[in-house]
């Protein structure tokens, strides 16, 4: 990565949720190798931003995405109502997909309208905009195993083009049914970042980035501490970046596709020159 090819964006807020790591402060200590994961396993998050009735009805995918979205905005101390967003997921909601497929085969007239409207790819983003009162644009991304890096690049390009800040949320839940062997994912994992084009008093890290041609087949990186807790989830490709954020520094390479790579260097804001 040369200086001429490198650009910078800034992280203003970070969030993380997994059943054994239900929050960024907990996850950061574990990913950096400074603590053991809690013994308690939570089933799913309970996002306070949703009204109680909606919170109960929301599928796991929506609850997870909204929880990390709200926590990232809270960490950045930004009002979500004016914040553009990007949502990325590898498989969407496999539980609802499995339900719809089975119901359409066996008893199509019994299809639940609620389940059907939750099956669309932008369901989580739609819930987020309604719950937060956000009228800013949102984008939803899915590129199978490359979804995390593709969504991150989309967010980086948006803030670079438009200025200001944007929210990036990425999540995946447990696969089930006949599709599970092909759409592999275990457990729940959701992560969020608020990314800005310029440094501010809220900045917690700088991301220096560039992309290049290169095969992703041989891409290997050291696994974060206790990665076995999370590596079965389809969104696990995000983990090297979040380990670097937890440690405050480090180079990271994410696969954008079979022949394209995204190189990132993380630097803690406290180490940046004035």
How are the secondary structure elements laid out?
Elements: E1 7-17, H1 24-31, H2 52-57, H3 60-76, E2 85-88, H4 94-106, H5 113-117, H6 123-132, E3 138-141, H7 147-162, E4 165-172, E5 189-196, E6 205-213, H8 239-247, E7 249-257, E8 260-268
Parallel strand pairs: 2-3, 2-4
Antiparallel strand pairs: 1-5, 1-6, 4-5, 6-8, 7-8
Helix pairs in contact: 1-8, 3-6
Describe the structure.
With 274 residues, this protein is α+β, with helices and mostly antiparallel strands. It has a single domain, classed as Peroxisomal Thiolase, Chain A, domain 1, CATH 3.40.47. It has eight helices and eight strands. The chain has helices at residues 24-31, 52-57, 60-76, 94-106, 113-117, 123-132, 147-162, 239-247, and strands at 7-17, 85-88, 138-141, 165-172, 189-196, 205-213, 249-257, 260-268. Strands 3-2-4-5-1-6-8-7 form an eight-stranded mixed sheet. Helix 1 packs across helix 8.
Summarize the model shown.
By secondary structure, this protein is of the alpha+beta class. 31% of the residues lie in helices and 23% in strands.
- For the largest sheet, list the strands in their spatial order: 3-2-4-5-1-6-8-7
Query: What is the second-level CATH architecture?
Result: 3-Layer(aba) Sandwich
Identify the CATH class: Alpha Beta
Care to count the β-strands? 8
What are the secondary-structure elements, in order, as H or E?
Answer: EHHHEHHHEHEEEHEE
> Could you tell me how far the N terminus lies from the C terminus, measured between alpha carbons in angstroms?
23 Å
List the total number of helices. 8
Oligomer type: single chain
Radius of gyration, in Å, reads: 18 Å
Major β-sheet profile: 8 strands, mixed
Structural class: alpha+beta
Which stretches are low in confidence, meaning pLDDT under 50 for 5 or more residues running? Answer: none
Strand portion, in percent?
15-25%
CATH level 4 superfamily: Thiolase/Chalcone synthase
Shape: globular
Report the helical percentage: 25-40%
Total domain modules: 1
């Amino acid at each position: 990565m040369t200086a001429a090819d490198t650009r910078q964006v800034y992280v203003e807020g970070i969030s993380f949720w997994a059943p054994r790591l239900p929050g960024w402060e907990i996850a950061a200590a574990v990913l950096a190798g400074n603590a053991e994961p809690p013994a308690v396993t939570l089933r799913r998050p309970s996002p306070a931003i949703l009204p109680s009735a909606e919170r109960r009805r929301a599928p796991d995918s929506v609850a997870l995405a909204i929880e990390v979205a709200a926590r990232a905005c809270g960490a950045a101390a930004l009002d979500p109502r004016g914040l553009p967003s990007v949502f990325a997921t590898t498989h969407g909601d496999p539980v609802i997909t499995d339900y719809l497929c089975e119901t359409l085969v066996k008893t199509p007239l019994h299809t639940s309208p609620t389940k059907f409207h939750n099956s669309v790819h932008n369901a989580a983003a739609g819930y987020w905009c309604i719950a937060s009162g956000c009228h800013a644009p949102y984008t939803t991304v899915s590129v199978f195993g490359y979804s995390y890096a593709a969504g991150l690049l989309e967010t980086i390009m948006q803030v670079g083009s438009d200025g200001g800040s944007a929210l990036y949320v990425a999540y995946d839940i447990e696969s089930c049914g006949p599709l599970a062997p092909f759409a592999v994912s275990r457990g729940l994992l959701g992560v969020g970042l608020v990314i800005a084009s310029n440094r501010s008093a809220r900045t917690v890290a700088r991301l220096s980035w560039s992309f290049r041609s290169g095969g992703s087949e041989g891409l290997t990186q050291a696994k974060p501490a206790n990665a076995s807790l999370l590596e079965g989830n389809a969104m696990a490709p995000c983990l090297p970046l979040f380990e670097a954020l937890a440690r405050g520094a480090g180079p990271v390479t994410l696969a954008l596709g079979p022949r394209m790579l995204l190189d990132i260097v993380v630097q803690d804001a406290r180490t940046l020159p004035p």
